[in-house]
Design a protein that fits this description.
The chain is an alpha+beta fold. The protein is about 35% helix and about 25% strand. The strands form six sheets. The protein has a six-stranded mixed β-sheet with strand order 13-5-4-14-17-18, with helices on both faces. A four-stranded antiparallel β-sheet has the order 1-2-3-19.
Length: about 550
């Protein structure tokens, strides 16, 4: 009996050991815990990684928006709000399951905006093992950088800049000055590092004031003679007869009297190489009333070198030296620029010489803008110097876009008059070149004004037959000069300011757009928009990037 029980037990144990049914269940039960751990770790770590990535991206977007809004100003509540808005757009509350989301940003010096972001991400499975959440954080910095940039501001300072746009409280020249100073501050607040930032300015109206720049570079580029429509006078003896006396004493009397006669013609004056300004060389020639001497000083404005007429739809011929932005003057007078001396100019109302007793007035009031500023390395430390220059800009004269573009291009061209300075940096690095051309109006020329092309109806340099023809011919010249600048890899930004609806829809305004590089024509109806456009251009000239 006893043996039978043990036999049965032994047989049962043997069968149990040999029976494999249910092993999978037991093994699965034993492995479920580590499997949950592995899967949970993969799921939660993957969620944490993706959430961390989005948090970093949102932080980056926030500081970039804040730095863009900051421009050249301080980092205040408005700028911080822009940064917060962009962060929240990229990392909205409730997305990704994150909680306790925070973002803070502040200015780090003048060039950077730094930010920190944090969030808590609850775990989905790892809480089983005691890991209830991930504490995520991100740091970000946005920096405005400049490598090597040349910027030439070509600014319309014609008489209409004294007008005030509808809705503005200050006139246009005041708005331009504020926008230009803010533009300078934005660019110079960027991180230049080992790069170089150079600024130049060409104020223009009927001519430009580049005499000092040319004289300092090479006095031989300026002609020592000036040919302009002027006059001289002679005295003639004529018999004059008339009744004298009264009553019985009245009689017919003839006498020889001396009369002054003016000879109006193009005259060439030897001016030499005068110094410039209110204390400069006094030039004196007998062009006054009755042959009297007239004295003046050269203010630095110039007349263009030799040209030849070509039509509104024609390409400038090679002999139009004024259209060549790179030609370096030689000893030939035709290649040199002449002094702008309106005090000696007398328009004779026709091309042919004229002899008359009529005393036509001089062009002494012709507009001569402020001296241009040659490209100069500048930093934020030069803000006061730049502001003083801009604040001193005066207005007056007609709107000749072609002379502004010609000299903006000449002063920045890498292959022209200043190629030795403009071709590359001192370290041989390439330079990114920009012309910012600002005007408050469409081209507005005259055949009677004394301009960089002389007096058109007396000299006929451009070939204009009327004001409309003159506008068309100067527009053609302007567009060809714009093209010449673009061909030298110079980016042209054109900003119009305060045009009427009719002017904005005109062909002349479309020509302003044709001058600009692709997509770089901007319109400003008031001073706020002008400043906004200048700021936009400054940010596009520089590079807004993440510093970390």
């Amino acid at each position: 009996m006893r043996g039978t029980v043990f036999s049965r037990l032994r047989l049962g144990v043997t069968k149990l050991l040999r029976d494999r049914r249910g092993n999978a269940f037991m093994l699965t039960a034993a492995a479920i815990v580590p499997v949950i751990g592995i899967v949970g770790s993969a799921v939660d770590i993957g969620r944490a990684y993706m959430t961390q990535l989005r948090l970093q991206q949102a932080c980056d977007a926030g500081v970039l928006a804040g730095r863009r809004a900051m421009g050249a100003g301080a980092y205040g509540a408005d700028e911080e709000a822009e940064a917060n808005k962009m962060f929240n757009f990229n990392f909205p509350t409730g997305r990704y399951g994150a909680t306790a989301i925070s973002f803070e940003s502040e200015a780090d010096g003048t060039a950077d905006v730094a930010g920190t972001a944090s969030a808590t991400l609850p775990t989905a499975l790892m809480y089983i093992f005691g890991k209830s959440q991930f504490d995520l954080s991100a740091e970000c910095t946005a920096r405005l950088e400049i490598s090597n940039i040349d910027v030439m501001l070509v600014l319309d300072v014609t008489g209409s800049m004294e007008w005030t746009n509808e809705g503005d409280t200050a006139n246009k020249i005041t708005g331009l000055k504020a926008a230009a100073k803010s533009f300078f501050a934005t660019l110079t607040s960027a991180d230049i590092g080992d790069g170089q930032l150079r600024f130049g300015v060409v104020p223009y109206s009927t001519t430009v004031n580049v005499g000092k720049i040319l004289a300092d570079e090479n006095a031989a580029w300026l002609s020592q003679d000036v040919t302009i429509p002027s006059r001289f006078s002679t005295s003639v003896q004529e018999e004059e007869c008339g009744w004298e006396g009264s009553g019985r004493n009245r009689k017919w009397v003839c006498r020889m009297v001396t009369k002054n006669v003016y000879h109006y013609e193009d005259r060439t004056f030897p001016v030499g190489s005068p110094t410039i300004g209110s204390d400069g060389t006094i030039l004196r020639f007998a062009t006054g009333s009755n042959g009297g001497n007239v004295s003046t000083r050269w203010r630095g404005c110039i007349m263009e070198r030799a040209t030849t007429p070509f039509g509104p739809d024609e390409t400038a011929p090679p002999e139009a030296f004024d259209m060549d932005i790179d030609m370096v003057p030689t000893t030939a007078v035709e290649t040199q620029w002449q002094l702008f001396l309106p005090a000696f100019v007398h328009d004779r109302r026709q091309v042919a010489p004229l002899v008359t007793s009529t005393n036509y007035s001089s062009a002494s009031g012709a507009a001569c803008p402020n001296p241009a500023m040659k490209l100069t390395v500048m930093t934020s430390a030069d803000q006061a110097t730049f502001d003083e220059y801009i604040d001193g800009l005066l207005t007056g004269g007609g709107t000749y876009h072609d002379v502004g573009m010609a000299w903006g291009a000449r002063l920045i061209s890498p292959t022209g008059l200043f190629a030795d300075e403009n071709d590359a940096t001192d370290e041989g690095e390439p330079i990114d070149r920009h012309i910012l051309f600002m005007t408050d109006g469409l081209i507005d020329t005259s055949v009677t004004q004394f301009t960089h092309q002389g007096v058109e109806r007396s000299m006929g340099r451009v070939g204009s037959t009327s004001k409309a023809d003159s506008d068309a011919r100067h527009t053609n010249r302007f567009l060809q000069l714009c093209r010449a600048a673009r061909e030298r890899n110079i980016t042209i930004w054109v900003v119009s300011f305060g045009l009427t609806e009719e002017e904005e829809e005109s062909e002349s305004n479309r020509n302003l757009g044709r001058c600009a590089s692709s997509g770089q024509a901007l319109a400003s109806s008031n001073t706020v928009e002008l400043d906004r456009n200048f700021q936009s251009i400054a940010r596009q000239m520089s590079k807004l990037r993440l510093a970390q």
